[in-house]
Structure formats: structure tokens, C-alpha cells
Specification:
single chain; alpha+beta; 8-stranded mixed beta sheet; 5-stranded mixed beta sheet; 18 helices; 25 strands; about 30% helix; about 20% strand; zinc ion binding; Aminopeptidase O; Peptidase_M1_dom
């Protein structure tokens, strides 16, 4: 029996039917209007037929395959297998209050023409029986389902990519007949050839993506908007294979949309940015949200002169003036990633630059070489991801300890950034490179976001958001947070969780690695000083974890809440993010803290040097891919000598650390080893002293108040 879920209160639905059609590239063409607080424009999506309907004769080149079926070899445990993506998963039931058919001149004839009625739509996430009942009822039109929320969709049409001059090179035959069926097949063939171009032709690919996105339309498509989705169909088309593989959507955001926030910066100037919403980017553009929908993108964004557009992009965009008072900014990405990682920030940001050119050069020289590259022996291996221009295969990128970086901030915070942040970035980047090797991304922008930002930091491809709160804390607070966000370039971005409920894969690793990075960034510290810092932080994290466990729901304390169902999807590819919409979950750190203590425990068991070598191996094997917990654990346990394994198994780690609430049993049995650390003892003594001093002052203050009250009564 299906579990009844209310996505408005609990789980976040991922509606896109990625098993039928998989988006490979987005082209966005947007205008940002601060007066109306609306982003409006066009998005063109390029698709491949999904794995469920891909022809068996296809080579699968460039397709998003089952990522890890071959990687995590089974030995004795079945826990190391990777679930296939077309098994039935527990589905959710969601209500749609504001369903409207918005196709051109269309009435709601859903019961007659095969579209879903409102009654059918109430089932929400389900198997293909609800979303695309092709096998059993061949007379129904295929429905393409995209994740969409808080958007006004104005028009949807098929793009005539065959009309682009020079596109003949992407067709197997230049001969065309007047039969419309053959023309439709030709268009889809062109898109297939375009999205599967070899990585060394990425510039040509971007050029033709741009040309195709500007091609004329060749027929409007019917569409329906719901609370969480946009459903698109073409009359008479009953399979994903025959459905248009290039579609154009006209839309605009709503001022109250939850993917971006409109506000003012610390200098009082208007700005808008993606702040890491629980619903991700579906209120910014229609997309496929499931992590398996790895895609590339390019975007042109127009805004008034005086504003700077920062975005997830491999290039450092320079504005182009279109007309007086209007600038256009263009970014692109060639590494396929989930649409949820797309980030944009538009504001009157000022670039913070190094005052001394000599100092900048010296900084880069000082941190240009890692301490050791002796065990980076995996560079010569073939990458396991889908084909793209990978930095791990680029000799110049592999030797780049400090990637190009820029810092942006509101005008009033520029001095703070120059004094602290600007000096720390090369140190932290170099420390990360020393630890993990090749930087997955070619450049980095760091932006101090407005004061309404609810976190200390957020990492996205090529850009990091930092809170202004890290600036006054001196180099330690700013440096550790910077290290945490830099760590996400490897864990969270280059390597992502295949199931978003396994947040610990991103946050646990980043929390553990921030200590390693920061220790190496502070080159002047002795071994004992580094250990003191790390043990003190372990104590503080232990106390936060203990307090959180005592004051939160048990079900929110589990790092793998779907347990053995983790990673499973419905037949259509739809799924849910368990507890994804729970308000209190936003403020919880259990996935940071329990993940950190698990990795710390493994490092102590294996030895830090061996453990970090295993992390580097994991990065080289799995970058550009999506993983589950067992992918990491299987690989790690394979590398541990038998004498050090003790009772470590994937099953025991699941049972003790990932699948249960509360404080993990091994952590309780370990006691509190940080108590023996001299720095911890020193800080604890200092804290105790000031608590006692404060109590004495408060007691003396009470006596004085009583005396004052007696005197006042006498008067």
C-alpha cells in the first residue's frame, strides 16, 4: 500500500519523469526587472530519450547511465549493490488546488483527449500508470513532466532545429521528404547528435545550442500547470521517442517565488539571488529536479546598467551593452550537474581587488605547489562519468593549486573583504589542492550576500556565497567557513548524492575536510597546535549534536531515512525528498555533525594518512557522478588492511551511524577523547572561571537592588 504523504507539510516531490525523457542542456534568455521583481524570458530544453525507452541498439553515448553498477563490487555483502532506477518506489499523494489548462485556445477536454483530469492529477507522484500510461493504453498522449512551482508559464512550443543553417552536419542524411513524421524524426536526430558531441567539440556544441535556441517554432504544445509541475504534451504523440526533443518555454517568475529572494544589500541597493531554497530552482525556471538529470546550461541575462550578474559559469563574464542603460551577461557550463546547483546573483556588487600587484603574485607563488603529489596515481585512469571536458584529464588543470578567483561585495563591506577574505582564498584553495588534488572547477567567485541570508555560506559551481557574519570574526571564522565551502567543490558538486536524503555525503565530508584544509592553510602551526584546534572543535560539535538530539524529532536525526529504499525511483523517475519541506529541518545540523563524527571515527581507525589517500582515490573514481553511501563505504573498506578492520562492515556502519536516530553507539563508547587535550582543558577552565565570575556579579547585583528597594520604601 502506498504511503500517504502531504508534500506541503513534509516531503518535497520530484515530479519530472526522467526515465522517459532526460534533459541534457538548458539555454536561458532572461530579463531581470527590479521594479516588478520579476525575472522573465525564455528557456529552451534539449532532451534525450530516457533510459526506459532508449532503443537497445543505441550506443548510449553521452547518456546518463546507471552510474555505479560496475563500480562498487560486491564481495560478501549485498549492501554494496546499486538499485536500478526503474523499480517502484513509495509514491506520494499531493493535492492540486489551482490546476489550469493553459494551452493555446484549449478547453479542458482531458477525459476525451487522453490528458489527465484534475481527479487523476490528485495522485501526485506515482508510477508511469498515472504519468504516462503508454504500455496499457496506447491511445493516450505522452506527457512530459517538468518540476515547476511559483511560475507563470505563458507559452510552450516545439523548436524547429532543422531550420538552422549548417545543421546538416548533424544529420545522417541530407535528403528530406514532405512527410511530417520524417521531419519530426530528423529534428530529434539532430538534437541527439548535438547533445552527444565529443567533449573536444564543446565550443562547437555551445555555438549550435545557441543557434538552435533561436530557431523558429514549429507548433505550439499543450501544457498544464500544477502546484509542483508543468505537464506538456503534443496531440497524437504517444511515446517519448517521438516527442519533440527541443522545446521552448516562455515564462516569468513571481515576486513571491521561493527560489530567489528580492532584497537590498548592506549598502541599501536592490538585489536578487538564489538563496538555497528547499524547493531548489523550480521557481526560477522549469526543469528536471531529480539529481539523475545531470545537464549543462548556458544563460544570457539582461539587466539595467550598474548591476552585476554573477552565476554558476566556467567563464568570467564581461557585460555587453545592448542599448543605452541595458547590459547583457553570458555564462556557460560544460560539466553536467543537477539543475539544483544553478545559482544566480544580481546586484550592485563591487569587485574587491588586491591593492598590491606584487603581493598577489607572491601569494600565488607561495601556495602554487602542494606538499606531495606522490600518491595521485589515479590521474591516468579513464574517468567514470559521462563525457565532458574534464579537468582531471587536463595536465595544466591537474597542476593548478590556486584557480583564478574574484571577490565581490556591497560597497560598504569592501574594506573588510580586502583586509581578511582576499588574503585567505589562495591559502585555502592551495590547502584543498594539497589534500584532494585537482580542482573540479576552473575558477571561483566569492560573494558577500545580503544580511537576510540564513546561513554562513553556500557553495555552487564556480561561486560561493558567504555571510557578512564571517568577516568580523578574524581569519579563523572566515577561513574555516571558506574551507568548508571550498570542500563542497569535491563533495556536493563534483560528487553528488544520488538521493538527496543522504545530505551527510555532502555536509559531513565538508565539515570533516574544513579542519584538514584549515590546518594546512595555517602553515605556521605546529602539529600540537593543529591537534588542539581540531579537538576543541570536536568538543563543540559534540555538544551541538547532543543538544540537537535532545531537542528534535527522532525521524529527523537519521542520516539515511529511506534506509534500504535509498536511491530508488518510481518507474517514471519521479520520487520524493523525505522531510524536504519540514521547516525545522532547515535549522538542523545533524547531517553535518553525525557525518563528521563518522568520518572522524573512520580516520582514527585507519590512520589519517591512509584515510586521506582513500579520499583522493574516491574523488578520482567518482568525480562527475552521483553516489550513495555504500559507494564510498565499499571502496573504503576494500582498502583497509584486515588487521585494522576490526568489526567494520557496511552493514554495521549503516546500523550504528546512518540508519538510527540519537547519538551513534560507537561515539558514546568512544567517550570524550578531547578531554585529554591541553587546549580543551585551558578553554574549559577559562569558561568555568567566567561563569563563576558572572554568577558572583549577579549575586552582588541582587543584594544592591534589595538595598535600593528598602531605601526607596523609606523615602
Amino acid at each position: 500500500m502506498e504511503t500517504q504523504l502531504d508534500p506541503m507539510k513534509d516531503d518535497l516531490p520530484l515530479m519530472a519523469n526522467t526515465s522517459y525523457m532526460l534533459v541534457k542542456h538548458y539555454v536561458l534568455d532572461l530579463d531581470v526587472d527590479f521594479k516588478s521583481k520579476v525575472i522573465e524570458g525564455v528557456i529552451v530544453l534539449f532532451f534525450e530519450t530516457g533510459s526506459l525507452y532508449r532503443k537497445t541498439s543505441s550506443t548510449g553515448k553521452g547518456s546518463c547511465q546507471s552510474q555505479f553498477g560496475e563500480t562498487c563490487k560486491m564481495r560478501a555483502s549485498e549492501l554494496c549493490h546499486t538499485p536500478v532506477t526503474n523499480v517502484s518506489a513509495c509514491s506520494s499523494k499531493t493535492e492540486y488546488d489551482d490546476f489550469a489548462v493553459c494551452g493555446k485556445g484549449e478547453e479542458d477536454t482531458s477525459d476525451k483527449n487522453g490528458n489527465h483530469s484534475n481527479e487523476e492529477q490528485a495522485s501526485g507522484i506515482s508510477s508511469s500508470k498515472d504519468c504516462c500510461d503508454i504500455e496499457n493504453h496506447g491511445n493516450k498522449d505522452f506527457l512530459l513532466v517538468l518540476d515547476c512551482c511559483d511560475l507563470s508559464v505563458l507559452k510552450v512550443e516545439e523548436v524547429d532545429v532543422a531550420a538552422v543553417s549548417g545543421i546538416e552536419k548533424f544529420t545522417r542524411s541530407a535528403e528530406l521528404t514532405d512527410v511530417s513524421k520524417e521531419l519530426e524524426n530528423l529534428r530529434n536526430q539532430i538534437v541527439h547528435e548535438l547533445v552527444t558531441l565529443p567533449a573536444d567539440r564543446w565550443k562547437e556544441q555551445l555555438y549550435y545550442f545557441t543557434r538552435c535556441s533561436q530557431a523558429p517554432g514549429c507548433g505550439e504544445l499543450l501544457f498544464t500547470t500544477g502546484t509542483w509541475s508543468l505537464e506538456i504534451r503534443k496531440s497524437g504523440i504517444q511515446t517519448p521517442t517521438d516527442f519533440p526533443h527541443a522545446i521552448r518555454i516562455w515564462y516569468k517568475t513571481k515576486p513571491e517565488g521561493r527560489s530567489v529572494t528580492w532584497t537590498t544589500d548592506q549598502s541599501g541597493r536592490p538585489c536578487v539571488y538564489t538563496m538555497g531554497s528547499p524547493i531548489n530552482n523550480r521557481a526560477l525556471f522549469p526543469c528536471q529536479e531529480p539529481p539523475i538529470a545531470l545537464s549543462t546550461w548556458q544563460a544570457s541575462v539582461r539587466t539595467a546598467a550598474g548591476f552585476v550578474v554573477l552565476m554558476s559559469g566556467e567563464n568570467s563574464a564581461e557585460p555587453v551593452q545592448l542599448r543605452e542603460g541595458i547590459l547583457s551577461w553570458y555564462y556557460y557550463v560544460t560539466m553536467p550537474m543537477p539543475a539544483s546547483t544553478f545559482t544566480i546573483a544580481v546586484g550592485c556588487w563591487q569587485e574587491v581587488k588586491q591593492q598590491s600587484f606584487t603581493a598577489a603574485i607572491q601569494t600565488n607563488i607561495e601556495f602554487s605547489l602542494p606538499s606531495s603529489q606522490a600518491d595521485f596515481r589515479w590521474h591516468e585512469e579513464i574517468c567514470g562519468h559521462v563525457e565532458y571536458p574534464c579537468r582531471f584529464q587536463n595536465p595544466a588543470a591537474r597542476s593548478q593549486a590556486v584557480i583564478p578567483y574574484r571577490v565581490f561585495a556591497p560597497w560598504c563591506l569592501m574594506e573588510h573583504c580586502e583586509e581578511c577574505l582576499l588574503q585567505l582564498i589562495p591559502q585555502c584553495l592551495s590547502a584543498a589542492y594539497t589534500t584532494l588534488g585537482t580542482h573540479p572547477f576552473s575558477r571561483l567567485d566569492v560573494l558577500i550576500v545580503p544580511s537576510n541570508f540564513s546561513s554562513l555560506g553556500m557553495a555552487s559551481p564556480h561561486i560561493i556565497f558567504l555571510s557578512q557574519s564571517v568577516l568580523p570574526g578574524g581569519s579563523h571564522l572566515c577561513g574555516t567557513r571558506l574551507c568548508h565551502e571550498i570542500a563542497h567543490a569535491w563533495f556536493g558538486l563534483a560528487i553528488g548524492a544520488r538521493d538527496w536524503t543522504e545530505e551527510w555525503i555532502s555536509e559531513g565530508f565538508a565539515t570533516f575536510l574544513e579542519d584538514i584544509f584549515w590546518a594546512r592553510a595555517q602553515q605556521q602551526l605546529s602539529h600540537d597546535e593543529v591537534r588542539g584546534q581540531q579537538e576543541l572543535k570536536a568538543l563543540l560539535r559534540w555538544r551541538r549534536l547532543r543538544d540537537e538530539v535532545q531537542n528534535s524529532e527522532e525521524e529527523l536525526q537519521v542520516l539515511r531515512p529511506k534506509k534500504e529504499s535509498t536511491g530508488e525511483l518510481s518507474e517514471s523517475g519521479a520520487s520524493v525528498v523525505k522531510h524536504g519541506l519540514k521547516a525545522e529541518k532547515i535549522f538542523m545540523q545533524v547531517h553535518y555533525l553525525k557525518g563528521y563524527f563518522l568520518l572522524r571515527s573512520l580516520a582514527r581507525t585507519i590512520g589519517e594518512a591512509s584515510y586521506l589517500a582513500s579520499l583522493r582515490k574516491f574523488v578520482h573514481r567518482f568525480h562527475g557522478q552521483l553516489v550513495l553511501s555504500q559507494d564510498f563505504l565499499c571502496m573504503l573498506l576494500e582498502d583497509i588492511p584486515e588487521q585494522k578492520k576490526s568489526e567494520l562492515t557496511v552493514e554495521s556502519i549503516f546500523q550504528n551511524w546512518l540508519d538510527t536516530s540519537g547519538i551513534p553507539k560507537p561515539l558514546l563508547e568512544e567517550g570524550e577523547p578531547w578531554k585529554e587535550c591541553q587546549l580543551v582543558q585551558q578553554v574549559s577552565g577559562e569558561v568555568t572561571k567566567w561563569i563563576q565570575t558572572n554568577q558572583r556579579i549577579r549575586k552582588s547585583g541582587k543584594k544592591k537592588r534589595k538595598q535600593d528597594e528598602v531605601i526607596f520604601q523609606k523615602v
